[in-house]
TrEMBL record:
Source organism: Volvox reticuliferus
UniProt family annotation: Belongs to the GARS family.
Pfam entry (one): GARS_N
Keyword terms, alphabetized: ATP-binding, Ligase, Manganese, Metal-binding, Nucleotide-binding, Purine biosynthesis
Location of the ATP-grasp domain: 197-403
PANTHER family the UniProt entry points to: PHOSPHORIBOSYLAMINE--GLYCINE LIGASE (PTHR43472), PHOSPHORIBOSYLAMINE--GLYCINE LIGASE, CHLOROPLASTIC (PTHR43472:SF1)
GO biological-process terms attached to the record: 'de novo' IMP biosynthetic process; purine nucleobase biosynthetic process
Listed InterPro entries: ATP-grasp, ATP_grasp_subdomain_1, PreATP-grasp_dom_sf, PRibGlycinamid_synth_ATP-grasp, PRibGlycinamide_synth, PRibGlycinamide_synth_C-dom, PRibGlycinamide_synth_C_sf, PRibGlycinamide_synth_CS
SMART domains linked: GARS_A, GARS_C
Entry's transmembrane regions: none
EC nos: 6.3.4.13
Name of this chain's protein: phosphoribosylamine--glycine ligase
Length: 521
């Protein structure tokens, strides 16, 4: 059982203990169980109410017996809650996608979160308790700073990469607003694939061999010298779609022309990175980084291709699951030592220390990982599963990290697997319809629905407004159970223009089935 101790300097205020789904009340040192069970998921809301009434906040987790309470074995997790009204914060999440909905959902549950604002948010974020959508233009950094001052925002979490590359975190930090997200210069790890690859070369970070090009003829000559398969990347931001894995020379030449000549990705394709093809299994890995300090999160596996069996063009992501079975303890250590820490130290040495969420896209083969790409924020849709599995106060963790106290942060994770199915509009990633009505969202009971490309029509109905529209995230004892729960929820949603892959998590499920078969023999 998990016991949470709540201490307060105010007496005889009634403190509360939370034991799984029941409250234990404590007054003047006497403990008793409340006979009424609590609906799962309401616990943090109750603690927030206690905080409002008694000025108590969760400060940090401890590993010790529950003093003055029932007998608890040493090592049980508990949260110490100390008196402090000043540490209560208003939070601003910047963004409008499924990633930002999941961040708002998770961060707003914190007992130290007084209120959470989402700019601009979406129809899903506006339905979350303690969350308000705000219509400020995040491209106007002065407006964001002014809003933070007016609302006394104590923590800003920037979801997407575009505002980070544009320097939003710089301007907020300069105004004294604690912000989780890297500076514009540090964000070049994602904003420029050429920059990222050069950092890898300079600081001995394992990655694919590469060269950079701005001239189509020279790029094609290099491709011809290496042969196919080969990878052609637009160096700039292309919404996760600027990578072509060319299986033939003709495909590679066409990718060069599309990016450098036809400008299908605009200025993002002004420079290309052409690199050797790596085979293996892709894994997404995340860490909270502040300068040279880093706290690992957990792994996930994304499904980039639009079609079942990983066929068709790449997308921003059609689904994901966590943890990734391809990641083991040995690879974890290698990734932290050779990729995360070397990147952090390299950026610090370059005079652009990284503060924020560092995403390492990995290719794993023969027990070794190589870096495919860095992103400077949570992945989408990987973030949704991470938020569902996170069993710690992420608001507190990020706030402490902005205060230079990342070394104090320890995050705990639920043992369950999480799986997210992306429901997209038919035609995505090409042309797709908008404005079709979505219903049945309230019928979903086996998963959490995170909104992405949604809006409301004049009648107040939820309608599609983007390519990736809904993210359906479920937990299970393993990936197979999470997969079943997620697809059960998908089938409860009524949307005529929906498209989704039917095989999210197939690698992990195949592993489970193979292990079961082997055990049977």
């Amino acid at each position: 059982r998990k016991f949470y101790q709540i201490s307060t300097a105010f007496t005889p205020i009634v403190s509360s203990y939370l034991c799984q789904d029941k409250f234990v009340t404590c007054k003047q040192g006497c403990l008793s169980f409340d006979a009424k069970p609590i609906v799962k998921g309401h616990s943090l809301s109750y603690l927030r109410a206690c905080h409002s009434a008694a000025s108590i906040i969760v400060m940090h987790s401890l590993r010790a017996p529950c003093v003055g309470g029932p007998s608890v074995a040493h090592g049980r997790r508990r949260l110490q809650v100390l008196a402090s009204s000043s540490s209560n914060v208003n939070v601003l999440v910047v963004g409008s996608g499924g990633r930002e909905h999941s961040l708002a959902w998770k961060l707003s549950q914190s007992p130290i979160c007084n209120h959470l604002y989402c700019a601009p948010g979406n129809p899903g974020t506006e339905t979350e308790p303690n969350v308000t959508n705000v219509g400020i233009n995040v491209a106007k950094h002065g407006d964001v700073v002014q809003f933070c001052r007016e609302k006394n925002v104590g923590l800003v979490v920037v979801g997407p990469e575009v505002p980070l590359v544009a320097g939003l975190a710089d301007d907020l930090q300069a105004a004294g607003v604690p912000t989780w997200g890297p500076s514009a210069r540090a964000a070049q790890l994602e904003g420029s694939k050429a920059f990222m690859k050069d950092i890898c070369r300079k600081y001995n970070i394992p990655t694919a061999a590469y060269e950079k090009f701005t001239d189509p003829a020279r790029a094609k000559a290099f491709i011809k010298s290496l042969g196919a398969p080969i990878v052609v990347k637009a160096s700039g931001l292309a919404a996760g779609k600027g990578v072509v894995v060319a299986r033939t020379l003709e495909e590679a030449f066409q990718a060069v022309d599309d990016m450098l000549v036809n400008k299908v990705f605009g200025n993002a394709g002004d420079e290309l990175v052409i690199e050797e093809f790596l085979d293996g299994e892709e894994v997404s890995f995340f860490a909270l980084v502040d300068g040279e300090a880093a706290v690992p999160l957990v792994s996930a596996q994304d499904h980039k291709a639009v079609g079942d069996g990983d066929t068709g063009p790449n997308t921003g992501g059609m689904g994901a699951y966590s943890p990734a079975p391809a990641m083991n303890d040995t690879i974890f250590k290698q990734v932290m030592d050779e990729i995360i820490y070397r990147t952090a130290r390299g950026m610090a040495a370059e005079g652009a220390p990284f503060r924020g969420t560092l995403f390492a896209g990995l290719m794993i083969k023969d027990g070794k990982a190589k870096l495919l790409e860095h992103n400077v924020r949570f992945g989408d849709p990987e973030c949704q599963g991470l938020m569902a599995r996170c069993d710690s106060d992420l608001t507190e963790a990020m706030l402490r990290a902005t205060q230079g106290k990342l070394d104090d942060v320890k995050l705990l994770w639920k043992p369950e697997a999480a799986l997210t199915v992306v429901m997209a509009a038919k035609g995505y990633p090409g042309n797709y319809p908008k404005g079709s009505i979505i219903s049945g969202l309230d019928q979903v009971t086996t998963a959490k629905v995170f909104h992405a490309g949604t809006s409301r029509n004049a009648a107040g109905q939820v309608v599609s407004s983007g390519g990736r529209v809904l993210n359906i995230t479920a937990l299970g004892k393993d990936v197979a159970e999470a997969q079943a729960q997620a697809y059960k929820a998908v089938k409860q949603i009524e949307w005529a223009d929906a498209y989704y892959r039917s095989d999210i998590g197939w690698r992990a499920v195949a592993r489970l089935q193979a292990a079961t078969t082997a055990k049977g023999h």
